[in-house]
Amino acid sequence: MKGGLVAINKPSGKSSAQCLNEIKAIISRSELAKFFQPDPPHPNDKNSKRKKWKRNDIKIGHGGTLDPLASGVLVVGLGIGTKQLPTLLSCVKTYKATCLFGCSTNTYDSSGKIIRVATKIPSKEEIADGLAAFRGDILQLPPLYSALHIQGKRLYEYAREGLPLPENVKPRPMRCDHLELIDFHEKGQHNYNDPDTFASKEEIESEELLRPVPDSEKKKAENDSDGAVNHDSVQDNNENSQQKSSNEEASAVKSTSVESIRTTEEKEGQENKNEPKNRKRKLEVTDLERGSRPAIGPSAVLDMSVSSGFYVRSVIHDLAHHIGSEAHMVDLIRTQQGDFVLGSDACFEFEEFHSAGWEQKLASLLKLDLENKEG
Predict the structure, then answer these.
(1) Does one domain contain both 263 and 123?
(2) Where does the record place Basic and acidic residues bias (predicted)?
């Protein structure tokens, strides 16, 4: 068996596993399959894994998962190259990440649902200055929607099933050697949109269990709520004050929190205290949320070099909170992993495996002799 390491430019919209399975199926039907097939087990070999050997099966793996939203360098090990993949776990990776300020989501990216809307839209200077807090050695809390295991179950499985976490998730030591703002576009100068779906009360509470909302934010939300009640009483006495306050509220960026999401049962309970309490609960957002989309803020592109296991989504989420705002990731490109660089000769475009000539290119990179029928 022969083989080695190559890189592919994973397209956005496909998981790493999907890409790997497609490539595996294509190579398995090609003349190169013979180079990457494991040797058949000896008849007396009692290793259970070896007993699963199949004649046309090839050995393949990758050196670090990319989220479906992300694109860029995905290192693939073929044949004996799979034994080299563990060395990539400790190498530095570089990314270009685009974040959109204005709201945060339960997944920390554009595939999720809105959990909070910003009360402040930061400037380019505030974003650039805030990056200093995340350079060097840091402690990072992973997103709730991540593949980390807790007691044999992945975090995203707890989130999707609405199950409480059996234990607290601890921040992990990470390193960020380089973190810079390389591009910035004000609202109206980019083509990104915020998600149009708000998270349910349970989904918001699940995220807050992992990453609690600071007491200062909760207190502010309570004060805002009290202020709204006092404002109503002022409206009854002064119509001019009512008009002024309404205009101010309309121009402000509103903040979404757990308190702003109520259940139908709770709303009906305020109208009729004798209503039966054993009715099925239905989640419902307030009128404010139902009829509006959050204000779209600026987009910012960050260039970073980080250690293995680093969650780019988390640093965007944490950066926004650090400067008093909300944000989520809308695009991610891995530009380098170890010695493999996006756009280099050693990096395949994923579409190349669906066109002629890929066999010769792969054989040349891995120094395989296609004329050798023995493999």
Answers:
(1) yes
(2) 199-223, 262-292
List the CATH number of the domain containing 288. 3.30.2350
Number of domains in the chain: 2
CA distance 313 to 172: 14
For 350, what's the count of Cα atoms within 13 Å in the CB-facing half-sphere?
Answer: 20
CA dist 359 and 31 (Å) reads 8
Q: What is the dihedral of CA 215, 107, 133, 177, to 10 degrees?
A: 160
Amino acid making up residue 328 = H
Whether residue 62 is found in the same domain as residue 102 = no
* CA dist., res. 51 & res. 361, Å (int): 33
Which DSSP symbol is given to 198? Answer: B
> Per the confidence metrics, is the pTM higher than 0.85?
no
CA count, 13 A, side-chain hemisphere, 294? 31
Residues classed as catalytic: 67
The domain of 83 spans 3-90+338-365
Other beta carbons within 10 angstroms of residue 268's beta carbon come to 12
77 and 119 share one domain: no
> In this predicted model, what pLDDT tens digit does every residue of 285-312 receive, in sequence order?
333 343 345 558 999 999 999 999 999 9
